[in-house]
Each structure stands twice: as structure tokens, then as C-alpha cells.
Amino acid sequence: MMNFCINQPFGKLNPNDLQSIRHMVREFCSTHDADSIYIALWDMLKCALCSTETSHWDEQKRAEYIFIFETLAQLIEASYALEGLLEKNPELYSVCCQIVSRK
């Protein structure tokens, strides 16, 4: 499991630890539905862009945050799709583990 720290928000997840990664994705997908996550992410972006703390941002900085929002939304969608695929086809997870263990 990852440890949250403001200076290192994503901890030190081992990319070869597929069980830990799968557990995190499964937990996320099971505790939040995709629509509510998208709405929350959109609300956070709106709040950030409308905040007095960001009023000095130029167009480029705002565009970067919109791009980050779009890519995070795609990543979240892919997480739900991948988890659904792995639930329907558990043998795919075994194949992934074998590929990673060969590296």
C-alpha cells in the first residue's frame, strides 16, 4: 500500500508489484463510481481555476491544468475498463504477472 505524503504524494509504489497495483485499482473502482469521480474531478478543476489563488495564472498555465484534467479523466476511465476486463478474464492478470516477472 502507498503511504501518502505531501512532499511525495504517490509514495514509492513498486511497478513490478502487480498485486498491490491491482488491489489499489480494485479498491478505487469499488468505492467510487466513475460518474461521481468525473464530477468530483471536474468540480476540483473549476474550483482551482476560479480561485483567487489562481487568478494570476496565464492562459498557458490554465491550459496545462485542463490538459491534466482530461488525461486524469482518461486514466480513471481506463482503470474502470481494465478492472472490468480483469474481473471477466482473470487469466489476463496471470499473463501480466508472468510478463512482469520475466523482466
Describe this structure in words.
The chain is mainly α. Helices cover 72% and strands 0% of the residues. The chain has 4 helices and no strands. Helix 3 packs across helix 4. The two termini are 22 Å apart.
Give a quick account of the main beta sheet: strands, pairing sense, barrel closure: none
Counted by DSSP, the helix tally is: 4
General shape:
elongated
User: Helix-strand pattern, N to C?
Assistant: HHHH
Helix amount, in percent?
over 70%
Show unreliable segments. none
Radius of gyration: 17 Å
For the secondary structure, the number of strands is 0
Strand content: under 5%
Q: What structural category characterises the helix and strand content?
A: mainly alpha
Could you report the average pLDDT, rounded to the nearest whole number? 81
Q: Please give the alpha-carbon distance between the first and last residues.
A: 22 Å
Keywords:
103 residues, mainly alpha, elongated
Question: Can you describe this structure in just a few lines?
Answer:
With 103 residues, the chain is mainly alpha-helical. The protein has 4 helices and no strands.
